[in-house]
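Page 37, continued from 36.
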């Protein structure tokens, strides 16, 4: 899949209030702006990005961020199961 599509739409990435709470809880994050934190991870050169079906999966630093490919909504983020 062409992850350039994801990069080209980085400004469209967003989440819901529930999404913010879920991401903070799952990653034990203490970030004021969860969306900006996720965007910085997505844009990192270390990020492994793949697309499966309707979602993008961004694996970085032991986290997996799930982004809907059509709405660019961050659905969830969680720690990678080792």
């Amino acid at each position: 899949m062409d992850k350039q599509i994801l990069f080209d739409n980085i400004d469209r990435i967003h989440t819901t209030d529930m999404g913010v709470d879920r991401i903070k809880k799952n990653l034990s994050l203490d970030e004021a702006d969860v969306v900006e934190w996720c965007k910085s991870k997505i844009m990192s050169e270390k990020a492994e990005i793949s697309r499966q079906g309707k979602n993008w999966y961004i694996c970085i630093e032991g986290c997996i961020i799930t982004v809907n490919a059509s709405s660019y909504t961050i659905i969830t983020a969680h720690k990678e199961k080792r």
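The mean pLDDT is 96. Flag for discussion at group meeting. Helices lie at 4-8, 17-27, 34-43.
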